Amino acid sequence: MEIPPKSPDGSEKSPQSKELLTSNTASTLCISSRSESVWTSTSRSKWDIYHKPVIVVSVGAAIFLFGMVITSLSCIQIKNKHVYKMCGPAFLSLGLMLLVCGLVWIPIIRKKQKQRQKSQFLQSLKSFFFNR
């Protein structure tokens, strides 16, 4: 039977128990949560709010324009014409899909922002009337 080596500080904890003691999974889950609390009233800049949909719209527009160039090359270029005819519409559709998704995402964010402002206003009214 093999005896596990003792640690230099004299504690006889197994490596698994050390992992369990140092693991803070629950606190990490709470910190990394994406949902924002209604109770916090931190103001964010417009870029912080809209940066993801703006990036999606710009990438979608770039891919769409690239697809237009590839598709137009299929009309001009004689060599490898079938490759351009296959890839052009694929880039067109992918770019258009990203462009539309980003454009739809912006009004959704605006609606959420309005709902968050309303809920904060209602919460302040509740606290005003019930904390007397």
From TrEMBL:
Keyword Transport: no
Keywords linked to the UniProt accession: Membrane, Transmembrane, Transmembrane helix
GO molecular function, one term: transmembrane transporter binding
Main localization category: membrane
InterPro entries: PIRT (IPR028068)
Signal peptide feature range: none
Domain of life, per lineage: Eukaryota
Residues in coiled coil: none
Membrane disposition: Multi-pass membrane protein
Subcellular location(s) per record: Membrane
GO cellular component entries: plasma membrane
Region entry Disordered, spans: 1-22
TM spans (from-to): 54-78, 90-109
Protein's name in the database: PIRT protein
Annotated organism of origin: Corythaixoides concolor
Gene, per the UniProt record: Pirt
